[in-house]
């Protein structure tokens, strides 16, 4: 079971931004963004995380959550 949860959908809703807009702004494919959003990613590059945080004006902790 994955213990790191990606709350990308929450931040997208708060910022009223679509997945398509975020994918274009970050420079990743919709497929890759969907993998991340659906908690299927095995890893995320810091550079990608940085761009997501920049686009959503948030901190990494707003997106990533650890659950026991």
From TrEMBL:
<dbReference type="Pfam" id="PF13443">
    <property type="entry name" value="HTH_26"/>
</dbReference>
<dbReference type="InterPro" id="IPR010982">
    <property type="entry name" value="Lambda_DNA-bd_dom_sf"/>
</dbReference>
<protein>
    <recommendedName>
        <fullName>HTH cro/C1-type domain-containing protein</fullName>
    </recommendedName>
</protein>
<feature type="domain" description="HTH cro/C1-type">
    <location>
        <begin position="14"/>
        <end position="63"/>
    </location>
</feature>
<dbReference type="InterPro" id="IPR001387">
    <property type="entry name" value="Cro/C1-type_HTH"/>
</dbReference>
<dbReference type="GO" id="GO:0003677">
    <property type="term" value="F:DNA binding"/>
</dbReference>
